[in-house]
Amino acid sequence: MAAVLVSRAIRLGCFWGAPLLSVALLAGAARPAQALTIDPTFSSSITTSADAATIESDITNAIAFYDQTFTNPITVAIDFQVQGSTTSPTSFLGKSLSSTGLLPYADYTAALYANATANQNAVELGGYNHLATGNQAPQIMATTADLRALGFNAPGAATNSGTPGTFDGIITLSANYIAGFGGNGTYAANPVIQHEIDEVLGIGGPGSTLNILTNNGESASSVADAPVIGGLATIGPLDLFRYAAPGTPSYTTSGSASSYFSLDGGQTSIETFNQDSSGDFADWGGTSQQATNPPEVQDAFQSGANIALSQTSPEALALQAIGYDEVPEPASLILLGSALAGFAAARRRSARQA
Predict the structure, then answer these.
(1) Is 123 left (phi over 0), alpha (psi -120 to 50) or beta?
(2) For residue 212, how far is the Cα from the chain centroid?
(3) Of 61, 76, 155, 158, whose CA is between 20 and 30 Å from 97?
(4) Tens digit of each residue's pLDDT (9 = 90 or more) over 208-227
């Protein structure tokens, strides 16, 4: 399979990453239940920093959510770096490179169903059951971490130079804008770190192929305009759940469009997708450079709030939808419709209190 390299610039005030290198995929075998493990490597830019202890502790604390929440028996290798100083500031808060692979739509969606039924993932199964109303294309581009979560053999390939390596992702954090990272920064570390980890896992930036079009100076009004990679029109995992209205999928680069993440065919809006091309289309945020209310980790434009993921965050639902299985809770085996209704009610209460 030919490699595809997609590079992205990262701007201050937003978090977004890049799908990097496609790899060959083989079907995996059945797996025993165990916890997902994120294996961090700290580069010399961190270990030689005077603030190494703070940086490593913040990264470790951010990772703990994923290790404690998801049960997929995979290890996700991520290299962490810092960049920038008070005299030479970065133009970003955080950025990431993610290894990606290409799969036929039918193979990817079949893996969603197989994983959902094998692991009692009601969120994933609910999304799968409404795929017929969502965007469809011949091919899906997903991160290697997501593909392994679904049972495929997809080794990581990310390196700084874009040549084959061993990481599923490389995350670079701003030393001058993040508090405690070496400068006079005031931005909280946790939302930056978790935002970029989400991207390596497969949501956020790599969740849609719309940014590939804007990076190439192209636009889209429907999925018929999806980028052609390796001869096939290609969408991302979250494009499967991107809606403009009930039963009406959305795939457009229009800044005036409205789109949202939904797992029941567009009936319930879990969170709005960003439609500002200066940020990631698979992040949250709507049609202007604003954080959601209340702010979320995956907002395309940073609010400055010190926030963290939980099992009921829209990001957690998005990760479940693309194949990550949560640790069961006593009352977790409920109908998806009830779960979404409760989630929406909680979001409304939270918004009124903000």
Answers:
(1) alpha
(2) 15
(3) 61
(4) 999 999 999 999 999 999 99
